[in-house]
Design a protein that fits this description.
The protein is of the alpha+beta class and 102 residues long. It is built from three helices and four strands; from the N terminus they run H-E-E-E-H-E-H. It has one domain. Helices cover 34% and strands 15% of the residues.
């Protein structure tokens, strides 16, 4: 999963390869949900710029799906819990700015 804190394989999953995507296609699926985290890959706390290497990796995995005629659903719903841990009125403006940037 591209959402794992500590890196793609940190939760025991293998690194996604095109062969992995092809196997899922062979099993009859036509779409893959790709859970992604962004917060841990921010390299500039002011602009919330995400590391290019991470964006390249997400693009690579999406490309595997597209190349195999599959839908890729890039999903963010947790992202390390940064929003849940900062959901207060005094953090609203900062959270809105970060969400917009991400």
């Amino acid at each position: 999963t591209l959402e794992a804190i500590g890196g793609e394989t940190a939760w025991g999953n293998p690194k996604v390869t095109e062969d992995y995507i092809k196997r899922i296609k062979e099993l009859g699926f036509n779409a893959i949900r790709i859970p992604c985290s962004w917060d841990q890959y921010i390299e500039d706390a002011e602009t919330y710029k995400i590391k290019d290497s991470w964006l390249d990796r997400v693009n690579e995995v999406v490309g595997y799906c597209v190349a195999n005629d599959m839908y890729a659903i890039v999903n963010i719903h947790w992202d390390g819990g940064w929003l849940e841990n900062n959901c207060t009125p005094d953090k609203q403006e900062e959270n809105n700015r970060k969400q917009h940037a991400l």
